[in-house]
Amino acid sequence: MIYFLNEKNLPDYINNLLKKYRVYGTKRIGNDVIFDYLDNGNEFYDGRSILSPKNMIIPSWKNLNEHDNEKETIIFGIRSCDLLGFQIMESVLKLDIEYNMKRSLMHFANFICSEPCIYGFCTTFGGPKLNDSGAQFLRYRDGYIVEIRDNVFQSNLMTNASEEMVKYLEGYNEHFSELMAPLNTEDIEKKMSWNDDLWNELAKKCISCGACNYSCPTCFCFDINEGENERIMEWDSCIMEGFTRMAGGANSRPDLSSRLRQRFMHKLSYHYLTYGIHLCSGCGRCYETCPVKIDIRDVIRRYNP
Amino acid sequence: METDFKRIYNFIPSKREDINYGTLCIKGWKGLRYVKHNSRLKRPLIKDEKGNFKEADWDTAVYTAISSLMEILGKYGPDSLAFQASAKCTNEENYLMQKLARQVFHTNNVDHCARSCHASTIEGLITSFGSGAMTTSIRDIDNAELYFVIGSNTTEQHPVIGSRIINNRMKGKTLIVADPRKIKLAEMADIYLRHYPGTDLALLNSMAYVIIDKKLYDREFIEKRTENFEEFSRIIENYDPDVASRITGVEPEYIERAAVLYATKKSITFYAMGITQHTQGTENVQAIANLALLTGNVGRSGTGVAPLRGHNNVQGSSDMGALCDFLPGYRRVYDENGRKIFEEAWNCELPAKPGLSLTEMFEYALEGKIKAMYIMGENPVLSEPESEKIIKSLENLEFLAVQDIFMTETAEYADVIFPSQSFAEKLGTFTNTERRIQLIKPFLNPPGEAKSDWEIIQMIANSAGYSWNYNDASQIMDEISRLVPQYSSVNYKCLEMTGGLQWPVRECHGTEILHAERFTRGSGRFNPSEWKKPIEFWDQEYPFILTTGRVYYQFHTGVMTRKVYLLEREAPEPYVEINPEDAKNMGIKNNENIRIETRHGELCVKARITDMVPRGILFMPFHYIESPANAVTNSNLDPRAKIPELKVTGARIGRCQ
Ligand code: SF4
Ligand code: SF4
What we know:
heterodimer; A: 11 helices; 11 strands; B: alpha/beta; Rossmann fold; 3 domains; 7-stranded mixed β-sheet; about 35% helix
């Protein structure tokens, strides 16, 4: 169903959700937008967070010996690219019991961007309006058009959407694609080349910070280490030398260029060949957080100019 | 930073344009987890007669410490005590630490690890420009046309700045790198000067020779704003590139080309420990300053001299006078007028004689002249040269107190250990490498009974009969802002409003570029010096030069980073780099254990064969207790800055059993 919510009512709408659920939403600290648990509706800020909230399912760092009391949680204000990231990760994670348990307790309300961001290219992968979300909010005049699929988001603060609104929502992706031209990914999974000199070029610049992995809403690799009284699960990064180093020191990807190649080939080729979907939602964060500005769009354009 | 019910969730790069523009290095993404490590110290510890640590309450621990300190003070006098501040603690804490030493215990024996990294910067840049700090700002890096990187592995040690340099290089700007090791930046440099360790001064002097010889200097700038040019040009005459080439091993044409480019573009020079950790460290720094003065590459946008600081607060802890020869604000202890300001403020008499530097403290302890030490947040057993000597000198003490967040290799030798708070748990300020004073706020609860370092210091002072009554860190800053000119008018409100200010601060406004109209000391001074051969160099008996440094994934002595599994996985073990040809000649295989022998000690470590190092040179990171590089390095001191020459030690290779 499609509704309209006046922006004046948004804080109360969130407050109503807070009565029953934990709300993990976007808020603003200085000029930075981050995800955090909201205490009241006024804290919410409609903007794209620096990092995706993927730590809700793959914690950046967690002692597995300490147990959380899991509770139903609403992820409020997630952008479409990040939500698509969750959906893409699901292709792999759905086999995991822990993941399914956590996922079943999560409800997503995503906010469709009202204008293209600088680095994103979500139109390439079917964004920004998605076909599968608990609730989608699209900025419209003095409020939001809200498409609801998950009943937890129902509220009597909303009115039914007009026909005009419904049309606007339906034609939104087409309209958006004019502002943000989709990149051509046709056959890229076959065109990418193992021996491309590109990988060496990128390796010259890359400083192995891991930001491209940590900031990516579709990277799900983690590592577990045991120490005194602790089992630590934390984000891993395929850019690191130790990622594939085996006991005894042998390493299948000993140099940085082979690791960068792995990252891009996994994103744009291997994953597609196995699961029929690219391991990228087009959020552009890997470019945004990369200190030396390695651009995945350039990699795509290299094979499909 | 996001926190979930007081549990750390995530570290997030802030998008602030002026510093890290939304990026972090791996230590930023991962390295700060240590604050939640469950081996954090939670209660004070006192060593019993059997040498075991027993938990104690604060009152007992403080009482034990102060009664020992007072007894030693009474028995042997003030100069039998030594205090170590820390570049990882806040400005406020460092300020109080030196105040504790000077006001309560009447000694200038207070120092910290800036001694081992940037003491020569302070001495060198103060004598040249008047301020011992980066003259420009991180943001201004983008405005330069040329980057001259000498003795700094910037992409590994200062990745956020290093990547700025990479990005500018990719935009077509010029990069000159001088380093014995073929570091990442060297591979993309326009000119790569691979000079021998310990010959920086000859190289820099020779660049000046070329600039004078080709008349590429900035005559107007020299006339209007500098002094001592004549003497400078006289000494520089001895360094024509052919001579310098024989000393440094760099082709004369390369020296020439580098000098011409440096002089004709807007240039910033970046340097770090490769310049400072030498017996001629101060002279090296001055030589860099000389080049900047000669070409007018200082005091305007896109130019400057940029010493890169390793710890979050080396700049601040030095500003606070946690140094044996400087009072807060870089007033020399022997300067009567400077002393008077603090004597009045603190209502006491201050000693005029410079105290013992870090390295000297340990020597004196070894000789039995220092009886008690008070160490805050430092781990000298790993970070200082000749670690065996350090251990012996710690054992030699009658009393040792340590304040730290973890049990460290140094704390093992303490009589009393105070658990302190990490940056995540306390309020205070740090001053970063570009002189920016930034406010930090607590976002976690401290573990157990841990207290912030300033609180602990205040407890010690008050139990010695003083009545300090700072209620929180902001009141310490108020005192600092009254007494330290660079920090005048700094208060937490304006730091919070502006998100940080670069000193000198005037009425809530910072200074992006130093020395713009005039130098802090008036005019810029050329301080020329002759190159001297390092005390240890290649010779018959020790045919290698051992130089030390860091790896990307570890920080300092690893107390913090080695507790993060992923960082530890990336760089789990010590190694020594050796050139393939040297390895071949000596029949050394990759990953084989070899023995490194120097005049100071020996150790066994895995060989890593790589052309990162040229022939005749060995490189070893110093983070590891298993093979502490500093067990074999030399502690010859720069006579002025008292910095040890960690970068050049004669060495030979033997076999391990
Ligand atoms: S690969 Fe880059 S653009 Fe694609 S989802 Fe990950 S961070 Fe976003
Ligand atoms: S973000 Fe950039 S520099 Fe960092 S690891 Fe990824 S590609 Fe390399």
